[in-house]
Structures are given as C-alpha cells and as structure tokens.
Write a structure and sequence with these properties.
FAD-binding domain-containing protein; mainly alpha; FAD; two-stranded antiparallel sheet
Amino acid sequence: MSPEEASRHKSMSSEDFVMSVNRALDFGYGPHPSSSSLDHYMEKLFSGSGHTAASTKECFEVPPRAIGLISERMAFPLSLMHSHDYVSKGLALVGDAAHTVHPLAGQGVNLGFGDAAALAKVISEGVSVGADIGDLSLLSRYENDRKAANVAMAAVLDGFQKMYSVDFGPLNVLRAAAFHGAQYISPLKRNIISYAMGDKKSPLFS
C-alpha cells in the first residue's frame, strides 16, 4: 500500500484494523480467484507433458479470519540497498547489514540465512587449517560466494516490485501468462522454489 495508507492503518483503532485485514484477505481486492480461460488453455497445453504441477488442481481457500492484535503494528517500506563491500579485516557483514531487499516472499531472511551459512563454512575451513578467522583473504571468500547470489535475487525482487506497480493491459496479460506458465510446468516451478530457498544458483532449468 502507499505510505499514506500504511500510516492510516498504523493509527486506526485495533477493531478497524482487524476489519481491514479481514477485508483484504477475503474480498478486499476483488472476487475470489477462479479458473479463467487462460487456466483452461494452459492446462490443455501442458496436460500431455506429464509435468503439470499438482497445485493447479487446488481451489482457492479463504484464509482464516483475524480476530485481534497480539503485537504492535509495524510498517516496512519497500527499499533496496546493497553494500559495496561485505568484509574488511576482522569484520563481515551478513543479512540486512550487507543488503536490504523489498519485503516480498520472505526472501530477505532467506538471503540472511545463506550469508550466515556461507560465513560459517568459511570460518570453519579457516579454523581447520589454523588460519586467522579475521584475515581479509579468508573473509573475501565469503563475499565472493554470496555477493553474486544476493545481487541476483535483489534484481529479481526489484523486477517483481516494478512489474506489479504498473497497471497496463498488455503487460498485465504477459505477467499473468508468465506466472501461469510457472504454475503449470512442474520442473520450472520446483527450480524457482529451490532458487528462492537458496538451494540453486538459477531459477531456470539446470
């Protein structure tokens, strides 16, 4: 939502906020998703390939209703920042200290987990050979391993944010077709999920 809408939702009463959340989860942004002509076309196109994702048969389910607040409301502005250097002697930046991405699909925390795992591996390897764990040449291996992956994911998320910020008929059709294609092609869908989890270097076939 816009910054103005976010500010209004933070300041409204708890009761009004819960009502707004439930409206958004249910009918707030249009009717419930249903099969469209594009769904039927994609299913017909890929039905004989044996690669159709099982989830394409699932119907939309209304999420459970929110009944109250249990914590303070927080707003997270869309932002994209990336540190030029991750390491210096005796210092390594990980997670949001090294990069911030748009809060879409929980990828920020996944990138942080990837950073932590890569840094732990580098430090463990250094300890095993008696190296100084703060040595720049050792820590640079962590930066070289993670920077390319983080920049790539940041670019993907920035692309999603820009793609969905434009309401233009032909672009909307292309966007819908692309996402339907990913939904109906199981190998591609699995690769995208693995990429999002940090298990693969590329969301495409490999």
